[in-house]
Amino acid sequence: MESAAIHSAKHILLLVGIILGAGSFSGMLAHKFKVPDVVLFLLIGIGLGPELAGVIDVKADTAFNQLIIIFGSCYILFDGGAGLRLNVLKKVWITIVAISTAGVLITVVITGFAASHLLDLPLITALLFGAVIASTDPATLVPVFKQVRIRERVAQTVLSESAFNEAMGAIVTFTLMGFALGTRGKLSLGEATFSFVGNILIGVLIGGVLGYLAALLIAHEKFSFLLEYASLVTLMSVAGAYISAETFNASGVLAVFVFGIVLGNKHVFGFRMKRQEKEKLDDFILTTSLIMRMFIFVLLGSQVNFALMGKHLWSGIALVFVIMFIARPATVFLCALPDRHAKWSLKEMLFMCWTRETGVMPAALAGILLGMKAPGSEVIASITFLTILMTIAIQATTTRWLAGKLGLLLDK
Question: Which CATH class is domain 64-405?
Answer without folding.
Answer: mainly alpha
